[in-house]
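Is this the right way to post structure tokens for a design question? Let me know if I should format differently. Anyway, here goes:
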């Protein structure tokens, strides 16, 4: 990261963008691009609505590169033992989508992308009104494509636009998110806690979270926080949680 500037970007605004457009309640560097990491899994999950999710596909760990040839994922870089244990067996696309979101599974993501296709993901981003700063061009772990300049980048504002277009079925999957240490950690807990549907993304130097937040008896909102820093993953999660806590207060100021 020596040649890339640090970034802490966010966008907070209403879930219903018909009246507000891109006018959020609180933002910082919302148009600055950052490496997407696993946040690409959200537009992929949306695009998968157009395929037969009940069809089962063979689980394998090698995939076609966007620049030709093939590459193989490393199990040690993933956190989804269930799908890796199923290599050589068949799993439904619906279950692979769930694992891609809930467990942030890389192998499930690439298996789903193999069926859905990059162009379909790009169409989802275009339909959401995302700018050309947000791009999905390759699968997870396609290092040859990355080195050739094919980027998976996002901005906070564009991801907010995407969250506003997430269908109920995908939001429901996101509510089962296993990784809750960032945005959800900064929001109230207990009986009056909001319902949070979030998706995290992280690699070395990158920690992100994006969420649909539905408070009890109040207007739902979206919050996206992107960080690119040299601090530890745990410190970045704490920073995002602190931003989420302030976002909750700012959103509360708009409640009747």
């Amino acid at each position: 990261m020596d040649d890339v500037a640090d970034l802490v970007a966010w966008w907070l605004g209403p879930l219903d963008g018909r009246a507000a457009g891109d006018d959020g309640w609180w933002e910082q560097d919302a148009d600055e691009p950052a490496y997407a990491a696993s946040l690409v899994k959200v537009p992929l999950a949306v695009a998968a609505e157009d395929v037969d999710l009940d069809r089962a596909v063979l689980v394998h760990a090698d995939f076609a590169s966007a620049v030709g040839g093939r590459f193989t994922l490393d199990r040690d870089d993933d956190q989804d033992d269930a799908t890796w244990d199923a290599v050589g067996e068949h799993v439904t696309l619906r279950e692979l989508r769930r694992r891609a979101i809930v467990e942030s599974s890389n192998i499930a993501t690439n298996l789903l992308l193999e069926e859905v296709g990059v162009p379909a993901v790009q169409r989802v981003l275009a339909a959401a009104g995302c700018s050309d700063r947000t791009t999905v061009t390759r699968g997870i772990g396609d290092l040859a494509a990355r080195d050739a300049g094919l980027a998976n980048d996002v901005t906070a504002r564009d991801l907010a636009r995407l969250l506003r277009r997430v269908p109920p079925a995908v939001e429901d999957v996101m509510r089962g998110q296993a990784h809750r240490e960032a945005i959800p950690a900064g929001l109230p807990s207990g009986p009056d806690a909001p319902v949070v549907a979030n998706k995290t993304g992280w690699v070395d130097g990158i920690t992100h979270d994006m969420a649909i937040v539905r408070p009890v008896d109040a207007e739902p909102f979206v919050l996206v926080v992107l960080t690119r820093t040299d601090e530890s993953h745990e410190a970045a999660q704490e920073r995002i949680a602190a931003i989420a806590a302030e976002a909750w207060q700012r959103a509360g100021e708009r409640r009747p």
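Format looks fine. Someone answered above. Worth noting: The longest strand covers residues 195-203. The mean pLDDT is 95.
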